[in-house]
């Protein structure tokens, strides 16, 4: 059988039309509805405290540990705890006004650190809720930084001063 232009043209046009029709219909993304519902909204409440205001409540470097500011934004500040050039822990303060669920987990707490409700957050995190609003956390980044170390470092924060912040 001799191939004619028609034998090539028909399958090519048929394939092209399937591609065009398939591309023409855009199926909705599962994120489209969320995008529409949250357009113009901020993930951080306007009432959230600026992260720079938290810095004065963090513990200072001492006893071979170096405390270094790592991140700061509206409603959040985080500092690294380093020892011997190695990051052993992260300390943070966050304003739960933007994330009420973060504060609600402390309501059932039977544990306290420095008089504030405390919870363990996984195997490597410990937190307290200060003034019913500010979550102060210590997270181990190295196995040498134990739960007791996290509790000790949380106690080094100026928690009473932070509880006065509005």
Annotation, overall tally of beta strands = 7
The oligomeric state is single chain
Helix proportion range = 25-40%
- Rg over CA atoms, rounded to whole Å, is 27 Å
Taking pLDDT < 50 over at least 5 consecutive residues as the criterion, the unreliable ranges are: 37-41
DSSP strand (E) fraction? 25-35%
CATH class of the domain at 51-163: Alpha Beta
What is the overall silhouette? elongated
Give the end-to-end Cα distance, rounded to a whole number of Å: 87 Å
Sheet with the most strands, sense and barrel status: 7 strands, antiparallel
Tally of helical segments: 5
Structure described in brief:
The chain has 166 residues and is α+β, with helices and mostly antiparallel strands. It has helices at 5-24, 32-38, 100-104, 147-156, 159-163; strands spanning 65-73, 76-83, 86-95, 111-113, 116-121, 125-130, 134-140.
Task: Supply the key terms.
166 residues; alpha+beta; 7 strands; single chain; elongated
Task: Write the SSE topology.
Layout: H1 5-24, H2 32-38, E1 65-73, E2 76-83, E3 86-95, H3 100-104, E4 111-113, E5 116-121, E6 125-130, E7 134-140, H4 147-156, H5 159-163
Antiparallel strand pairs: 1-2, 2-3, 3-7, 4-5, 5-6, 6-7
